[in-house]
Amino acid sequence: MNFDQRETIIVACMVLFLGKYLNKRIHFLRNYNIPEPVTGGLLFSVLFGVIYFITGHETSFVLELRDSLLIVFFITIGLYSRLNVLKKGGIALIILLVLAGTYLFIQNFTGIGITKALGMNPILGILGGSVSFSGGHGTAIAWTPIFQNQYGVSNAAEIGIACATFGLVLGGIIGGPIAKFLVKRYRLEPKKASPTTVGVAHESKKIKIDYENALKIIFLMCFTAGTGIGINKLLVVIGLSLPAFVTALFAGIIVTNLAPYVFKKEKWEPENLNILSLISDLSLGLFLAMSLMSLELWTLVDLAGPLLLIVFGQALVITLFTIFVVFRLMGKDYDAAVICSGYAGLALGATPTAIANMTAVTKKLGGSAKAFIVVPLVGAFFIDIFNALIIKYLLGFA
Asked: Which of 123, 145, 190, 325 has the smallest set of CB atoms within 10 Å of its CB?
């Protein structure tokens, strides 16, 4: 079954409708802050897997729009980010960066330990460590030729993609329960002054959508996207390559902090435009729905046994690390609990998984501006650099 772009969007909407419906009616999903795209996306991917095993027909989607939706989402996050908030998150950013770099070693040693216990080649522990989990699908695919050509792991691509896929799913499941446990255990509450970045404003207030507001948002989003593209081109000239959504985030931060000085006569405050919150939720929800519903679960069956042990082992370690280390060093407050939910998704899955976890938590419990700045910056930029250096270092001893 081949779905074109229009049909892919329709299925993604159905995924979100189903996830929202089930989360409202199943107490467990709602109580533990499981993101709606994860609920619906997993069920749809299982459905397409069943269809494959019964009929032999694979399901494919046109996913070109998916990457654009991620850029749109990070533009909205940047537009919420005033300098006073960024300054408050400065120390937290450094602390989480150090913790994340340290955990890359722990994640690889965990993978090596599990593969040794299973009697497998220890080199697979690195592939089943930070390469696939903290690195995600892109890093796993990028390192595949090295594992194949230099270390003789012929099925490196399948193993890496399988670990990254399972990690993406599990990372979206454990983040909410971790935050719920911490909030309940330490009786935490959000700071009253902390704005709600996504998931709340458009549900708690009426959105004023008129011609002028809509035109302002369209201009703001397109201008910021162009600024992000310009930043990316400048960085390429100096030899630095960053994902497009990272420069989109930076562009949003620049625009929202410079706009008040350019438009002095107008109250230019994007965070007060509730429609921006609506765009945040829609773009992130559709991105995750497309990502999860397109998982080709049938490609993972032969590797399921040992890989599940690796995945659940990694999930256990990151859960303990976030609760007993990250939470304490990040301040043991509500912001720290939200950061833990995001970092758990980041360490097992990817930055969008982290954002989905934090969105589900803040949608129910309250905003955390610091979390929505610190976690994306660590996950989108710094982790990839540290991960590449650590992987290369550990492979040098193999």
From this structure: 145
Phi, psi angles (nearest 5°) of residue 242: -125, 150
Report the pLDDT averaged over residues 62-88. Answer: 78
Structure tokens at 99: 């913790």
Q: Which two tokens stand for residue 236?
A: 């390429």
Question: What pLDDT score was predicted for residue 181?
Answer: 95
Render the burial of 112-135: b for 16+ CB within 10 Å, e for the rest.
bebbeeeeeeebbbbbbbbbbbbb
Distance between CA atoms of residues 360 and 233, nearest Å: 34
pLDDT at 213 over 90: no
pLDDT at residue 24 is higher than 60? yes
Q: Which residue has the higher pLDDT, 103 or 141?
A: 103
**Residue 44 to residues 3, 40, 72, 292, Cα–Cα distance (Å):** 14, 6, 25, 8
Q: For 61, list phi and psi in degrees, rounded to 5.
A: -130, 155
Q: Which residue has the higher pLDDT, 205 or 126?
A: 126
Q: How many CA atoms lie within 13 A of 155 on its CB side?
A: 12
Per-residue pLDDT at 194: 55
Contact 165, 22 (CB under 8 A): no
User: What mean pLDDT is reported for the chain?
Assistant: 84
d(CA 370, CA 376) in angstroms, rounded, equals: 10
Distance, CA of 139 to CA of 19 (rounded, Å): 29
Question: What's the rounded Cα separation, in Å, for the pair 16 and 100?
Answer: 31
- Contact (Cβ atoms closer than 8 angstroms) between residue 191 and residue 264: no
Bin 97: left if φ > 0, else alpha if -120 < ψ < 50, else beta. alpha
pTM, full prediction: 0.72
Give residue 129's pLDDT: 94
Phi-psi map region of 53: left, alpha, beta (phi>0 left; psi -120 to 50 alpha): alpha
SS (H, E, C) 291-330: HHHCCCHHHHHHHHHHHHHHHHHHHHHHHHHHHHHHHHHC
Residues 6+ apart with CB under 8 A from 224: 75, 78, 79, 248, 251, 252, 255
Is the pLDDT score of 185 beyond 90?
yes
Collapsing DSSP to helix, strand or coil, 18 comes out as helix
Q: How far apart are CA 374 and CA 393, in angstroms?
A: 27
Please, what is the Cα angle at 383 between 381 and 387, to 5 degrees? 130
